[in-house]
Structure prediction request, 324 residues.
Amino acid sequence: MRFERFGEKHAESSVALWNKELGAAFPMRPRLLAQNALEDSRLLHKGSWVARDSKTGAIIGLAISKMPGEDDGRFGLRRDAGWIQALLVDSDHRGQGLGSELLRLAEDALRNAGAARVVLGNDLHRRLFPGIPKELAATRQWFERRGYVYREDVYDLIKSYGPDERIGMPEFGGGAAARVAEPADREALTAFMARCFPGTWDLQHRDYWERGGTGREYVVLEMEGAIVGFCRMNDAASPLLAQNVYWAPLFGDELGGIGPLGIDETCRGHRYGISIVQAAIHFLTARGVRRIVIDTTPFVDFYGKLGYEVWKTYAKYDKELGEA
Prediction:
């Protein structure tokens, strides 16, 4: 086998490898791989590799690594933390040390780039997984033998709605009202995010506008003309493939997504959180979306109040990098 730095020329073969191994549960699309890996400014080229079969030339292994960007510190991201977005080996070529070598190449590059800690997946909003999927129990054991530590489980939740089912707009009370954001809301919504959620949600929100967002993916909660809450919602017309619609090809009809959501801490305690989720469901179902996913949450009971059930489970892992 031989190793090459991962790049655009490997995209088609990498998608094929992914779908051979994971496509039944997590179907990869060229657009998704391009958006979340090749087009991500955080891609660590020196830590992203493919392995080719020396006889056939086929790609039989893949590792994608990332590091925070120069400006990410202002969003609370540790500059000494990196990510391994994906590490995948063709099942016909396992047991030969290929995965271990790809991991070594990725970890060495991350260490040389200044990472003291590496996280499996969960690489912000351009991740593929927030952790290791439950289906991959052997993968969990493989990483544990190499020093990775389990932290917690998070879940994707799902609910289907009938063809004629309509979700009404909830009553908020307290003078609050919800609506879909518009282009003119960009400045006010950005200021709200920076003030109330100055971490990765703020970063994600800014990326949304920079990538052509118009506001239609955000429900805003207003009180006396000021934004006091938000909820993200996604559908097939969204400019970015969001985490909650990654696996839409599993379904014959459109998949919608909800989350994240947040309420100004001065306005909490009035059920605005659950109500703004209901508002997002109202708007998505009005667009004809009949199946909705709420992704990467530990709050199963909270969303269970609205009939959402666990669909996929992921285990979060990380590792402190020592010297090579």
Residues 158-313 form a domain with the Aminopeptidase fold (CATH 3.40.630.30).
